[in-house]
Structures are given as structure tokens and as C-alpha cells.
Write a structure and sequence with these properties.
166 residues, alpha/beta, 2 domains, 4-stranded mixed β-sheet
Length: 166
């Protein structure tokens, strides 16, 4: 019971951090759009932010060290003291989830898998080992290789995760 409560607190804390970053970023720029806006992830000197992107948004508009490259949905822009790196579709799973998207099962780490009720650290590590052995999951059906992965867990996994070919 304590482990479930801790998982929920970690998830809530992650959402609050991302929401605060979004709120701080959105207060500093003129925004237009709807609730269905697209987001990119920003890592600025170790701090994570979820930022709305607008059609003309470029990485250079965020930081002078960044290239004039257009930012697409769920790109990751990493800014450090004198450098900038743009990773297309590089947003992490928690950023994807906070932006209303499903997390990628084939890149999920233990803490992300533990969002599913009934999966703790040991079971998450077993899922990661299976993923490594298979070279990545092709579908959520492969998780049923474990007798403990039941229909309720499958339904919850479908809610939070999607499978992209490895």
C-alpha cells in the first residue's frame, strides 16, 4: 500500500514540476491557440520544462546558442551554458504524459513502468529484461508472458503506454 502511495506521489510531483515549467514559460511569451496545443520539452541547465510551440517557433528564439531549426511537437531542446542541442521527438516519457500523449513502452524506465498498479521495481526490471531479450516490444500482448500481468494491468498499460516498433 505504501509503495502505491509513493508511486502516486512521484507521478503527481512530476506533473507539478512540468506544469510549473509550462506556466512559467507561457507567462513570458505571447500565446494564441486552443487547449490542444502542441508541446516540446526544454532542458535548460538541468531544469526540465514543457513549453508550448507555435507554428513559427525555432530553437534560436528560445536561446541564442540554438540553431534556427524549427521545433516540432515533442522535440527536446537541451540548453547548457554555451551550447544547444535539438533532438527530434526526444521528449521523455513523463513530458509526453504531461502533454497528453502516451508514454513509449520501448523506452520506459523502471519508474515509468511502476505507474501501472501491481508493478513495483522488481516486476518493472523483469519487463525491461524481457524487452531487452526481445529487442523491443511489438505489442502489449507480449507483456502477458508473465502470469502476473492480468487483464486489469493490461487495461492500465493501454491507458499510459503505446508501442512503437524498436
Amino acid at each position: 500500500m505504501q509503495a502505491r502511495a509513493n508511486k502516486e506521489l512521484v507521478l503527481i510531483a512530476a506533473f507539478l514540476v512540468l506544469a510549473c515549467g509550462y506556466r512559467l514559460e507561457s507567462n513570458t511569451m505571447h500565446r494564441t491557440g486552443t487547449a490542444a496545443e502542441k508541446f516540446a520539452a526544454l532542458k535548460d541547465n538541468g531544469n526540465d520544462y514543457l513549453i508550448p510551440i507555435e507554428p513559427a517557433k525555432t530553437a534560436h528564439q528560445m536561446d541564442a546558442n540554438c540553431p534556427q531549426t524549427k521545433i516540432e511537437e515533442l522535440d527536446l531542446v537541451m540548453v547548457s551554458r554555451n551550447a544547444c542541442e535539438l533532438k527530434p521527438k526526444g521528449a521523455g516519457n513523463f513530458e509526453r504524459l504531461a502533454a497528453g500523449r502516451k508514454m513509449l513502452l520501448n523506452s520506459a524506465v523502471s519508474e515509468e513502468l511502476e505507474i501501472i498498479s501491481g508493478i513495483g521495481h522488481k516486476r518493472a526490471e523483469k519487463l525491461i529484461a524481457l524487452r531487452s531479450r526481445l529487442g523491443g516490444f511489438q505489442s502489449l500482448d507480449q507483456l502477458q508472458e508473465f502470469g502476473w500481468f492480468n487483464a486489469r494491468m493490461r487495461k492500465e498499460a493501454e491507458r499510459y503506454f503505446t508501442v512503437q516498433a524498436p
